[in-house]
Amino acid sequence: MLELKGIHKYYNPGTVNEMCLFQNFNLTIDNGEFVSVVGSNGSGKTSMLNIICGSIPVEGGQILINGSDITKQKEFKRNRRIGRVYQNPAMGTCPSMTILENMSLADNKGKVFGLSRGTNKSRIEYYREQLSQLGLEDKMDVKVGALSGGQRQAMALLMSTMTPIEFLILDEHTAALDPKTAELIMELTDKIVKEKNLTTIMVTHNLRYAIEYGNRLVMMHQGNAILDKKGEEKAKMSVDDILALFNEISIECGN
After folding, report:
1. What is the largest CA-CA distance in the chain?
2. Which end of the chain is more exposed for a tag (fewer CB within 10 A), N or C?
3. Of the candidates 206, 222, 201, which has an alpha carbon nearest to the alpha carbon of residue 174?
4. Which helix (DSSP H) or strand (DSSP E) does residue 219 occupy?
5. Nearest to residue 242, comparing CAs of 212, 215, 211, 216?
6. 34-39/216-221 β-pairing
7. Which pLDDT band, with edges at 50, 70 and 90, does 119 fall under?
8. Of the candidates 175, 163, 238, the residue with the CA atom closest to the CA atom of residue 203
């Protein structure tokens, strides 16, 4: 279980540009949930992910995993339990290294073997099996920079879930892809989440994906969760329902 309790987050504190994004923000995500998060730009979606992963600190409140307080835990330590895939495929892979080197480093959390750049030959068959999902099983000596954006994003997804993790964080991970490739990445995402029973938080601007994938839907607005639907309630929702709420917010904000 992941809990955000009484979170306070300020940007530019103590300056004329000080902004309070989260004020006493609370959110609980149960084990096994796949939560789709939507909201306009600046609503707090990515900041929430950064707080969970430890990329940015908070001014108040607690972050708990299964009752254990990780609020002050460093990001690299949280990475042992949390896998993250970013919008930009370049952030999840190293283009100057081969597919094998990338897989080895991800599999061993960055450990280097001898003087090599992290190759782990004892795991090649496992890597080949994983890469067969992408049609890359015979291209392990190819540098990742030579792959398409979709292939790199698929690799980043595989690499983030190779070691045992408890949570998967998807930060608009299909936004930079063409529609066909995005569909393939979402299918792979759903497969991995179900097979590994990962508690997942997916931020997306694609409202159809938010509706079709996962068992919970959260809409953020000005640092608050203004919509939270689970299970049957979520299943009954449509893209039009979300759009109507977006339009209502836009009118209230004078847009």
Report:
1. 61
2. C
3. 206
4. strand 216-221
5. 211
6. parallel
7. low
8. 175
Angstrom distance (rounded) from CA 4 to CA 167: 14
Cα three-residue angle 65-215-73, rounded to 5 degrees: 15
SS3 for 159-184 is HHCCCCCCEEEEECCCCCCCHHHHHH
Do the beta carbons of residue 52 and residue 201 sit within 8 Å? Answer: yes
3-state helix, strand, coil in the chain (%, to 5): 35, 25, 40
* C-alpha neighbours within 13 Å on the C-beta side of residue 160: 30
Whether 120 shows a pLDDT value over 90: the answer reads no
Res 217: pLDDT: 98
103 bridge partner residues: none
- Of the listed ranges 53-67, 115-129, 154-168, the least confidently predicted one is 115-129
Q: In residues, how long is the chain? A: 255
Are 99 and 138 a contacting pair, CB within 8 Å? no
* Residues 214, 230: Cα–Cα separation, whole Å: 9
Taking all residues of the chain, what is their mean pLDDT, rounded to a whole number?
Answer: 90
Contacts of 135 (CB under 8 A, 6+ apart): none
Q: What is the mean pLDDT of residues 243-249?
A: 88
